[in-house]
Write a structure and sequence with these properties.
Blueprint: H1 2-24, E1 49-52, E2 60-64, E3 83-86, H2 96-104, E4 106-109, E5 114-117, E6 121-124, H3 132-135, H4 149-157, E7 166-168, H5 181-196, E8 203-208, H6 211-220, E9 228-234
Parallel strand pairs: 1-7, 1-8, 8-9
Antiparallel strand pairs: 2-3, 2-6, 4-5
């Protein structure tokens, strides 16, 4: 019985940690709820949709390649493979959260003018083009980790297919706009290929929060393309 109590205590502390994180950072969860089907719902998809997340809206994985130091003796300095960095609710319990912060932080390089991973930490964003990494921030699919989940579910009920006419464009939301030029190029390619593989149907970009300035950056540059139909903004930014 004692193990169950400890387990539920950890879950409770994790939820409290996430709530505290939301109040102390720019992370704004997408407030949605399960879609209730209507009698006049469409049965065939319209324009293809690309989901562009905001701050905190993409999963981040990390691999510790050999950190020169750790902030607590319980923290790992090296791991055998990539693990979930954002979002893993179990990381927000006391002590463990200190390890998480040190793995999550970026270091500014004054020579290049760019930010870098913390020494001994390698991070990556997985699932570009798919929707899994923007639907659920926590791979365990805990309710606190829902993001574009209900929107994607609603669109599939309208005939959309994940990976075909419903795409996702996760990115490293910790980075400054000038550090995301590679992402902008990937996004352009994603829009073009989605347009092409859906019978040359123009694409709608659905952005949330700080994902909208990312789209603005694309639109202000020469990367604006004719394959794009419209931008739809959700939430404050």
């Amino acid at each position: 019985m004692g193990r169950f109590r400890v387990f539920f205590l950890l879950i409770f502390l994790s939820v409290l940690g996430l709530e505290a994180l939301k109040t102390q950072t720019r992370f704004k969860p997408l407030k949605t709820k399960p879609y209730v089907p209507q009698a006049n719902d469409p049965t065939t998809p319209g324009h293809p949709v690309v989901l562009v997340p905001g701050d905190g809206g993409s999963q981040i994985e990390a691999n510790l390649t050999g950190k020169p130091s750790v902030v607590h003796y319980t923290c790992y300095s090296k791991t055998a493979d990539f693990f979930d960095l954002w979002l893993d609710l179990t990381s927000f319990v006391p002590v463990t959260i200190d390890c998480w912060v040190d793995n999550m932080r970026l270091v500014f390089n004054t020579t290049t003018g760019m930010s870098e991973d913390s020494p001994g930490v390698e991070t990556r964003i997985q699932g570009f083009g798919g929707t899994a990494s923007v639907e659920w921030l926590d791979k365990s699919k805990a309710s606190q980790g829902t993001y574009f989940t209900y929107i994607a579910d609603a669109l599939t009920k309208w005939g959309y297919t994940r990976g075909k006419d419903l795409r996702g464009a996760p990115f490293d939301w910790r980075r400054a706009p000038h550090e995301l030029t590679g992402y902008y190029a990937m996004l352009r390619t994603l829009i073009e290929t989605t347009y092409y593989y859906n019978n040359n149907t123009k694409v709608i970009i659905l952005g949330h929060s700080m994902g909208n300035p990312s789209m603005l950056e694309v639109n202000r540059s020469r990367m604006r393309i004719s394959d794009q139909k419209d931008d739809v903004s959700l939430g404050r930014f």
